[in-house]
């Protein structure tokens, strides 16, 4: 990659998950961080989550989707 090119969000997360100074432990950390943040957002009043870019209901919907997908993934 050229120095002036930024990684996409997906590329950044893949790089983080695959190339950490802490080895595979970073993967558990990232999954735990996702779970913790998703739980906080899912429990919040959607009105308090509104921003100029996204509605609180949509943001909360993202959190619930992450929770459901993590639950399904971790059950397998």
At a glance:
By secondary structure, this protein is an all-alpha fold. It is built from three helices and no strands.
Largest sheet: none
Question: What gross morphology would you assign?
Answer: flat
What distance separates the N and C termini? 36 Å
Q: Number of DSSP strands?
A: 0
Mean pLDDT comes to 95
**Helicity level:** 55-70%
Give me the secondary-structure category: mainly alpha
Number of helices: 3
Beta content comes to: under 5%
Low-pLDDT stretches are none
State the order of secondary-structure elements, H for helix, E for strand: HHH
Any key phrases for this structure?
76 residues, 3 helices, mainly alpha
Give me the secondary-structure topology.
Elements: H1 9-18, H2 25-43, H3 56-75
Structure explained in plain terms:
- It is built from three helices and no strands.
- The radius of gyration is 15 Å and the shape is flat.
- It is 64% helix and 0% strand.
- The chain has helices spanning 9-18, 25-43, 56-75.
- It is mostly helical and 76 residues long.
């Amino acid at each position: 990659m050229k120095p002036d090119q930024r990684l996409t969000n997906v590329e950044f997360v893949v790089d983080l998950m695959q190339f950490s100074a802490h080895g595979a432990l970073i993967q558990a950390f990232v999954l735990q961080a996702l779970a913790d943040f998703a739980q906080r957002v899912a429990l919040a009043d959607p009105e308090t989550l509104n921003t100029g870019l996204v509605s609180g209901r949509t943001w909360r919907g993202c959190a619930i989707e992450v929770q459901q997908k993590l639950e399904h993934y971790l059950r397998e």
